[in-house]
């Protein structure tokens, strides 16, 4: 669709205790997002299977979420068929679906699916469509994840049903799902789980002295394993704490989130742009694997969700230029002539960037986040 002008302002302001947040979307940035989304669907999406060529269950779930996040921002319906065509949408629409078989024991994959089902449901509800099957599927999956909590290492949800690892992202997702689930369902079980999850996370030792979350716990010692501080770990904790703030009114949770967001800006960037340890613009260097290729976009998306929850213009202002830098990196360094997005954002590609549906979805998320909270020119 053709979007209007450069900046769309709503007629109303949302008030919060600190500063009013101006509700707007930058149309120029949404145009960039739409260009990437159209290319993504044309190049990678197979409607007959509901999957992306070269994708995976959890990265596809994030991509469906990104498309619906985009349509909620633009008001458009270009990808309205994706929800029902998608693998997880089809599963939700089938009342006989055994969700355990869908995600195969991967509790982190299950969490991403819930987020995707919720976003697709939000789109449907916004357009006056029936979303009950998607919401019912999300509830069933949430209950499966919640049952994976036990007292090993003092608490936490297992990464998988094999019960060999407790890691940051699975438990950050459980925090987010629980807090957001409470806001959606108003069921105190969700809130109890959110509080329990944050209490365990903050005492787990997985957040290091820099304020960043390492990958997980050493199973033999229940101590921080010191593994990579991936960007997505730092984003999901922020959106989870933001949702818990909305549920409880405890503003100290926002300060906790920003310890980590500020650490990302300080420690996981190059040229003021996110750079994973596996990113290398030069040919022959490190290459991010099939999971890692989408991490940066997840960070930007969950910063958007965090700022939605914080609802404070001062906090928006703090990260506005940085979100713009990510969109700028995607546009100037990540985008190919064919409008695919590569894995490297921080510098011009010199043969090291790779191009997959995950990297394009990652760039798409960066544009959608920047359209809402970044500057309109980058």
TrEMBL record:
<dbReference type="InterPro" id="IPR005198">
    <property type="entry name" value="Glyco_hydro_76"/>
</dbReference>
<dbReference type="Pfam" id="PF03663">
    <property type="entry name" value="Glyco_hydro_76"/>
</dbReference>
<dbReference type="GO" id="GO:0016787">
    <property type="term" value="F:hydrolase activity"/>
</dbReference>
<dbReference type="InterPro" id="IPR008928">
    <property type="entry name" value="6-hairpin_glycosidase_sf"/>
</dbReference>
<protein>
    <submittedName>
        <fullName>Glycoside hydrolase family 76 protein</fullName>
    </submittedName>
</protein>
<keyword id="KW-0732">Signal</keyword>
<dbReference type="InterPro" id="IPR053169">
    <property type="entry name" value="MUG_Protein"/>
</dbReference>
<dbReference type="GO" id="GO:0005975">
    <property type="term" value="P:carbohydrate metabolic process"/>
</dbReference>
<keyword id="KW-0378">Hydrolase</keyword>
<feature type="signal peptide">
    <location>
        <begin position="1"/>
        <end position="19"/>
    </location>
</feature>
